[in-house]
Amino acid sequence: MTDSNLDAPVRAFAAERKYGHATLERWAHLEPDDAGALLALAQELRPSDNQLRDLWDWIEEIAARDHQTLAQVLASESLTSARRRAVSRNDKLKLVKGALRRRRFPQLAAAEERLAALVRELGLPRSIRITFPEFLEGDALRVEITANSAATFRTAVDALQTAAATPACEQLFAGLAEAG
Fold first, then answer.
1. Can you tell me the distance from the alpha carbon of 109 to that of 28, in angstroms, rounded to the nearest whole number?
2. In this structure, are residues 65 and 106 in contact, taking their beta carbons and an 8 Å threshold?
3. How confident is the model at residue 2, as a pLDDT?
4. Furthest C-alpha separation in the chain
5. pLDDT digit string, tens, across residues 92-119
6. What stretch of H or E contains 130?
7. What is the pLDDT averaged over residues 38-62?
């Protein structure tokens, strides 16, 4: 970081957040625009040292693959959109991580979107929730039924039986097996 105007704010913020020496040294080797963009993100999200390093690693991977700077990755529409959302700091951190994850793993994100579309095609009631394994690692999904009466439970089971007989259900499991 050759811009001395950034050195003091970075050091002050790093001290306030109790970031380790290695993090501060890594920051010192960034170009001023990258260091400033990372500082703005860190000040906004206030991540722990470990969270910051994880985000930073992902940002660097995306930047290297896409031939961009860290500042350019952080200025991307998907990240600025996530950062503009009026949500809690923790929720914003999740949104930023999600946006970075989609950029980092575009094929995985596309597979997840396709599977979510197939779940919507099943037309299941709100009392049924389908979840996939994290990062689509595995070939099994989880079905959760929330029922407050026997009638609600029977309705959910009937809906699942109907959905299980559809082509969308077959495509869902084929897509899950392909992704895993």
1. 33
2. no
3. 47
4. 68
5. 999 999 899 889 888 888 888 899 999 9
6. strand 128-131
7. 95
Alpha-carbon distances, residue 31 vs 37, 104, 126 (angstroms): 10, 22, 49
Beta-carbon contacts of 43 under 8 Å, excluding residues fewer than 6 positions away, are 13
Q: Which amino acid is at 1?
A: M
For residues 63 and 48, give the distance between their C-alpha atoms in angstroms, rounded to a whole number.
22
List, for residues 113-137, the tens digit of each pLDDT value.
899 999 999 999 999 999 998 878 8
CA of 136: how far to CAs of 73, 77, 87, 111, 157, in Å? 25, 25, 27, 9, 25
How many Å from the N-terminal Cα to the C-terminal Cα in the chain?
Answer: 41
Q: Which of 134, 141, 145 is nearest to 171 (CA)?
A: 141
Residue 44 pLDDT: 94
Closest CA relative to residue 101, chosen from 46, 41, 61, 44: 61
Retrieve residue 139's tokens: 């070939």
pTM for the structure as a whole: 0.70
3-state secondary structure of 145: strand
- Please name the residues in contact with 15: beta carbons below 8 A apart, sequence gap of 6 or more: none
Type of residue numbered 25: E
In angstroms, the CA 34 to CA 73 distance is 10
Tokens of 148: 């407050």
